[in-house]
UniProtKB/TrEMBL annotation:
EC number from the UniProt entry: 3.2.1.21
UniProt-listed PANTHER family: BETA-GLUCOSIDASE 18-LIKE ISOFORM X1, GLYCOSYL HYDROLASE
Enzyme class: hydrolase
UniProt name for this protein: Beta-glucosidase
Source species: Helianthus annuus
Keywords: Glycosidase, Hydrolase, Signal
PROSITE patterns in alphabetical order: GLYCOSYL_HYDROL_F1_2 (PS00653)
Signal sequence residues: 1-19
Family per record: Belongs to the glycosyl hydrolase 1 family.
Coiled coil: none
Highest taxon, organism lineage: Eukaryota
Transmembrane portions of the chain: none
InterPro entries: GH, GH_1_N_CS, Glyco_hydro_1
C-alpha cells in the first residue's frame, strides 16, 4: 500500500471507530450470551419510611436534620416511598425486561442498634418480600450489603468507620444478611464505593460525619490527610473478615459470589508529557488501586507507600493473607473521565500538592477545551471512550478479573429543567448508547465484563444534592410520588427486547 492508501484506510478505521462510539447501532446482541442487564438503586435513596416498623435513625437521617447540609434542604424521610410501593416498583423493573436488579439493605432497618441490639424481624420481612417477588418474576437480585447508610448509634458510640470496632459491626451485619437472605442471593456486594464515600465524608467533609481539614474544607473537626486512609483501611478489613466468613460458612452451601463496588473515575493525562502520564497512573492507583490492590494482591499500591510513607496503615501478614484474592468480581461504577496533571514537578492547586492526592491535580479542561459535555452534576462529564479505557485498565492491572458495571448513568438538574419536558430525555438515551458501545468494544477486545446496570430506576435522593439531580429512567412527581417513564425507560425496554422478539412472543 502506498502512503495515500494507508492514510485512506486509517481514515476509514477512524470513521468506523467514531461511528460505533456514537452508539447508534448498539444492540443487545452485541453483548455475549448470559450478559446481565439491570438497574441499580440503594436503600436510603428510595425507601423512605425512616422510622417505620422498627428502623432506627441512621447517619443520613441525622445529617439531613440540618437542611443546610443538603443542597435543596431535602432528606430521605419519605424519599420515593419505595418501602410502601416496592411491589409497583418491581413490576416496573420487570416491565423493562431486565435480567437483574441491584439494591441495598438498610443497616438501620435490620439492625437498628447494630451489634448492640436485636435483629428487627420487620426489616428481614421487608427484604424477604422483595427477594421473593424478584425471584418469582425471574429477576436476579444483586444485593449491596452496605451502601453509605448505617445506624447513627455506631457513630455516637465510637465514631463509626474511624474505629476498628466498626469492622465488628460490619461483619455482624454482613453475616445477618448471609444467614437470612443467602439462600436466594447469589451476587453479593459488600461495600459500595469505599473510595468515594471516604473522600466525601473524611476529606471534603460533605457527607456525614462531615470531617475534614484545610485546604480541603472547613469542618469543625477532622484531618483530611490521615483519616481517609484509616477509614478505608477499616472498610477493607471489614470486607476481608466478612468474606472469610462467607467462604468458610456459606459459599459452598449457598453458591454465591462476592464483590466490592469501586467508584471508577477514569484519568487521562492532561498533556502528552511523561510526567502527566505518570500522574494519570498515580491518580488511578490512589483512587482505585487503593481499594482493589489490597483485595487482590494483599497490599496497597507501591505508589501510595512511596508518597504516603507511614501515614498509610499496614496490614499484618495474617491480614494480608486473608485479604488477598478476597473478591470474586469487581463492581465498576463508572460515570466520567478527568484529566490528571502532575503536581510533583509543576505548580498546582493547594490540594493537588498534597501527598494524600498522590500529587495529582484533577482538571476538566485541556487547552481551554472541556473534556466532555457537562451533565447536571458539573463533574460528571460525558466521555464515552472513558468506559473502554477504564475497563482496559482494570483488565490489565487485575489480570482480567470478572467485572460487572454496577452503575452508569446521566443526570440533568431538575431545577434548570422546569421549562423542558423532563420526560423527553434524549441526552440520557444518547449517553447510555454511547457508553454501552464503548463497553461492547472493551468486551470484544477480551475484557471479562458480565453485566451492566443503569443508575437508576427512578429519580431519587442523591445524597448532598438532594432531589436536584435526576438520574432516573422514571420521573417521580415529588407531590404525588407517581412514577412516570421517561423516553429513556422506553429506549431501555426496546434495547432489551427488540420489537421483533416482543411481537413474536405476543
Ligand atoms: C475555608 O474558609 C476560608 C475562610 O473563610 C476560605 O477562604 C476558604 O476558601 C474555605 N475553604 C474551603 C475549602 O471551603
Ligand atoms: C521531577 O522532580 C523530581 C523530584 O524533584 C526530580 O528528581 C526529577 O528529575 C524531575 N523530573 C523532571 C522531568 O523534571
Amino acid at each position: 500500500m502506498n502512503d495515500i492508501m494507508i492514510g485512506f484506510v486509517l481514515l476509514l478505521l477512524l470513521v468506523a471507530a467514531q461511528a460505533s462510539i456514537n452508539g447508534d447501532t448498539i444492540k443487545r446482541s452485541d453483548f455475549p450470551d448470559g450478559f446481565l442487564f439491570g438497574v441499580s438503586t440503594s436503600a436510603y435513596q428510595i425507601e423512605g419510611a425512616y422510622l417505620e416498623d422498627g428502623k432506627s435513625v441512621n447517619n443520613w437521617d441525622a445529617f439531613s436534620l440540618s437542611p443546610s447540609n443538603i443542597e435543596d434542604g431535602g432528606n430521605g424521610f419519605v424519599a420515593d416511598d419505595h418501602y410502601h410501593r416496592y411491589l409497583e416498583d418491581i413490576e416496573t423493573i420487570q416491565s423493562l425486561g431486565v435480567d437483574a436488579y441491584r439494591f441495598s439493605i438498610s443497616w438501620a432497618r435490620i439492625l437498628p442498634r447494630g451489634r448492640f441490639g436485636e435483629v428487627n424481624p420487620n426489616g428481614i420481612l421487608f427484604y424477604n418480600k422483595i427477594l421473593n417477588d424478584l425471584l418469582l418474576r425471574g429477576i436476579t437480585p444483586f444485593v449491596t450489603i452496605y451502601h453509605f447508610d448505617f445506624p447513627q448509634e455506631l457513630q455516637e458510640r465510637y465514631g463509626s468507620w474511624l474505629s476498628p470496632l466498626m469492622q465488628e459491626d460490619y461483619v455482624h451485619f454482613a453475616e445477618t444478611c448471609f444467614k437470612n437472605f443467602g439462600d436466594r442471593v447469589k451476587h453479593w456486594i459488600t461495600i459500595n464505593e469505599p473510595n468515594l464515600f471516604t473522600q466525601m465524608a473524611y476529606k471534603n467533609g460533605k457527607y456525614p460525619p462531615a470531617r475534614c481539614s484545610p485546604p480541603f474544607g472547613n469542618c469543625s473537626a477532622g484531618n483530611s490527610d490521615v483519616e481517609p486512609l484509616i477509614v478505608v483501611h477499616n472498610m477493607l478489613l471489614a470486607h476481608g473478615k466478612a468474606m472469610k466468613i462467607y467462604r468458610r460458612n456459606y459459599q459452598q452451601k449457598q453458591g454465591g459470589i462476592v464483590g466490592i463496588v469501586v467508584d471508577c473515575l477514569m484519568y487521562e493525562p492532561l498533556t502528552d508529557n511523561d510526567l502527566d502520564q505518570e500522574a494519570a497512573n498515580r491518580g488511578l492507583a490512589f483512587y482505585i488501586g487503593w481499594v482493589l490492590d489490597p483485595l487482590i494482591f494483599g497490599d496497597y499500591p507501591s505508589e501510595m507507600r512511596q508518597y504516603l510513607g507511614n501515614q498509610l496503615p499496614r496490614f499484618s501478614s495474617a491480614e494480608s493473607n486473608f485479604m488477598k484474592d478476597g473478591i470474586d468480581f469487581i463492581g465498576v461504577n463508572h460515570y466520567t473521565t478527568a484529566y490528571a496533571k502532575d503536581c510533583i514537578n509543576s505548580t498546582c492547586s493547594l490540594t493537588g500538592n498534597r501527598a494524600i492526592n498522590g500529587f495529582v491535580d484533577t482538571t476538566r479542561e485541556r487547552d481551554g477545551i472541556p473534556i466532555g459535555e457537562p451533565t447536571g452534576i458539573e463533574v460528571l462529564r460525558v466521555v464515552p471512550r472513558g468506559m473502554r479505557e477504564m475497563i482496559e485498565y482494570l483488565k490489565k492491572r487485575y489480570d482480567n478479573k470478572p467485572m460487572f458495571v454496577t452503575e452508569n448513568g446521566y443526570s440533568e438538574p431538575l431545577a434548570e429543567n422546569e421549562n423542558q419536558n423532563v420526560l423527553q430525555d434524549n441526552k440520557r438515551v444518547e449517553y447510555h448508547k454511547m457508553y454501552l458501545s464503548s463497553l461492547a468494544q472493551a468486551i470484544s477486545d477480551g475484557a471479562d465484563v458480565r453485566g451492566y446496570f443503569v443508575w437508576t430506576l427512578m429519580d431519587d435522593f442523591e445524597w448532598v444534592h438532594g432531589y436536584l439531580p435526576t438520574f432516573g429512567l422514571h420521573y417521580v412527581d415529588r407531590e404525588t410520588l407517581n412514577r412516570i417513564p421517561k423516553l429513556s425507560a422506553k429506549w431501555y425496554q426496546d434495547f432489551l427486547n427488540p420489537r421483533y422478539i416482543r411481537e413474536y412472543i405476543s
